[in-house]
């Protein structure tokens, strides 16, 4: 199956790894990403991490990356956070979503439940250059909390 990512007019081939996996979709044509669905039942206990298989593999075009992000409703209502989430253009294995359950209750995903969303973004591949000094900025090396409350 070929999925047309309308926001960028690029084509992404999708292969079902699980015969009855749900193909990603965009509920609204203005959505930035497309929804990923659980391929199997999984339970993740409070404070635990787990992996949710999607049952699909993608062929992301060279020059692009798939970024897995939280679904806001699942994150806010369920206390779940996606982990990792960079799908490189050369990867052809099953898309698997890492989830941390930050809540105090068990999280249950049933087959076909939304688990996360994926954004396809164009990437730049810069040339890295080692230097002895970096050019100066106003911020400098000020880190966390440096801009105040």
User: What share of the residues lie within helices?
Assistant: under 10%
Question: Which fold name corresponds to the CATH topology?
Answer: Deoxyuridine 5'-Triphosphate Nucleotidohydrolase, Chain A
Could you tell me how far the N terminus lies from the C terminus, measured between alpha carbons in angstroms? 49 Å
Overall structural domain count: 1
The CATH architecture term is: Distorted Sandwich
What percent of residues are in strands? 35-45%
The CATH homologous superfamily:
Deoxyuridine triphosphatase (dUTPase)
**What's the CATH C level?**
Mainly Beta
- Structural shape: globular
* Poorly predicted regions: none
What is the count of β-strands? Answer: 11
- Summing up helix and strand content along with how strands pair, one would put the structural category as mainly beta
Return Rg in Å. Answer: 18 Å
Main-sheet strand order equals: 1-2-5-9-7
Largest sheet: 5 strands, antiparallel
Oligomer classification? single chain
The string of secondary-structure elements, in order, is EEEEEEHEEEEE
Determine the mean pLDDT: 92
The total count of helices amounts to: 1
Give an overview of the whole structure.
With 149 residues, the protein is mainly beta. The protein has a single domain (2-122), classed as Distorted Sandwich (Deoxyuridine 5'-Triphosphate Nucleotidohydrolase, Chain A), CATH 2.70.40.10. It has one helix at 72-78, and strands spanning 2-5, 10-16, 34-37, 42-44, 49-59, 64-69, 80-83, 86-87, 94-101, 107-109, 114-122. A five-stranded antiparallel β-sheet has the order 1-2-5-9-7. Strands 3-11-6-8 form a four-stranded antiparallel β-sheet, with no helix packed on it. A two-stranded antiparallel sheet has the order 4-10. Strand 1 and strand 2 form a beta hairpin. The longest helix is centred in the middle third of the chain and has 7 residues, at 72-78. It is globular. The mean pLDDT is 92.
